[in-house]
Design a protein that fits this description.
This protein has eight helices and 16 strands. By secondary structure, the chain is of the alpha+beta class. It has three domains: 109 residues, OB fold (Dihydrolipoamide Acetyltransferase, E2P) (Beta Barrel); 82 residues, Beta Barrel (OB fold (Dihydrolipoamide Acetyltransferase, E2P)), CATH 2.40.50; 98 residues, OB fold (Dihydrolipoamide Acetyltransferase, E2P). Strands 3-2-1-4-5 form a five-stranded antiparallel beta sheet. It has a five-stranded mixed barrel with strand order 12-13-14-16-15. A three-stranded antiparallel beta sheet has the order 6-10-11. A hairpin with an 8-residue loop joins strand 4 and strand 5.
Length: 343
């Protein structure tokens, strides 16, 4: 039984043989196996590792498949190279007589057979896609499939991504995170080092930031206290109330003012979407310096009034800066206009 092996331009093995025969029509030329092999090579294509070629599936085996790419010997693709994702059977990816692209993974073995890969093509395209998503500052969603001491693992476009523990904003334990779908932002995309790092916190902060404004008063709960400040939960995202922004009076430690789970009123003084940070203040809400230490309730009662004054002061500063920048330009334009009048 003869096997027809098609090359890229549709030439079959039998057609190759006809081409060779045409060059051997002269009766005085002897025909040997060496002559045939040499002339066959003349019509053969050379394949190199790293090439992407078209191929047709003509035999599927339990752990791989034979692919016709136009070489003298059928190429082989093992099951582990069929997809960027784990599969249990070749039929999940390939179908008989299907034609598609393949990556040449390894050169010919002793039997002259090339090794192919689909996974490598998907891998390259996946990195290209995540680079594009990072450039667009897109938010992606993915389910956590595992956790470790450092954080959680997800898959983005088939690539394994890592969410550091410090960038996970949820009250759920790490074990309970498995299976949960999270909104994520890209922190690092590095194909050479095979690093794909994401942030759940930044995605939440960005979404929350779209509804927040600098100078706005919000109610939150103290979720953590550190020597440098208190972390305040405001609607599911965390903001930092730095020790220097608690009161005009000196404070040795935030513990002297707050306890965990205290409900507080704070004002937003900065929104940094790129780093996913919200900076807060009670100092700017004090009617009198030191009120936050002496009587926090007074600060909370007059918070909106003090915040309105803060916004007015900020607006005045911006207008003052804008005026200072415009005036020199006007001074330069006036003499030019008077010169035109004199003419």
């Amino acid at each position: 039984m003869s096997v027809l092996v098609a090359i890229d331009d549709g030439v079959t093995f039998q057609e190759k043989f006809s081409m060779v025969n045409q060059e051997l029509k002269a009766p005085d030329i002897g025909f040997t196996h060496a002559d045939f092999a040499a002339l066959l090579d003349k019509y053969d294509y050379h394949f190199n590792p790293g090439d992407v070629v078209a191929g047709t599936v003509f035999s599927i085996e339990p752990k791989g498949a034979l692919i016709d790419i136009g070489a003298k010997t059928a190429a082989y693709i093992p099951i582990q190279e069929m997809s960027i994702n784990r599969i249990d059977a070749p039929e999940e990816v390939l179908h008989s007589n299907e034609t598609r692209e393949f990556f040449i993974l390894a050169d010919e073995n002793e039997e002259g057979q090339l090794t192919l890969s689909i996974r490598r093509i998907e891998y390259m395209r996946a990195w290209e896609r995540v680079r594009q998503l990072q450039a667009e500052d897109a938010t992606v969603r993915s389910a956590v499939f595992a956790t470790n001491r450092g954080g959680a693992l997800v898959r983005i476009e088939g690539l394994r991504g890592f969410i550091p523990g410090s960038h996970i904003s949820t009250r759920a334990t790490k074990e309970d995170l498995v299976g949960e779908e999270l909104p994520l932002k890209f922190l690092e995309v590095d194909e050479e080092r095979n690093r794909l790092v994401l942030s759940h916190r930044r995605a939440l902060v960005e979404r929350k930031m779209n509804k927040l404004e600098v100078g706005e008063v919000v109610i939150g709960a103290v979720r953590g206290i550190k020597p440098y400040g208190a972390f305040i939960d405001i609607g599911g995202v965390s903001g930092l109330l730095h020790i220097s922004e608690i009161s005009h009076d000196h404070i040795d430690t935030p513990h002297s003012v707050f306890n965990v789970n205290d409900e507080v009123k704070v004002m937003i003084i900065d929104l940094d979407a790129e780093r996913g940070r919200i900076s807060l203040s009670t100092k700017q809400l004090e009617p009198e310096p030191g009120d936050m230490v002496k009587n926090p309730q007074v600060v909370y009662d007059k918070a909106e009034e003090m915040a309105a004054k803060y916004r007015e002061e900020m607006l005045a500063k911006r207008l003052g800066t804008a005026t200072a920048e415009v005036e020199p330009e006007l001074e330069e334009e006036i003499p030019a206009a008077s010169e035109d009048d004199e003419e």
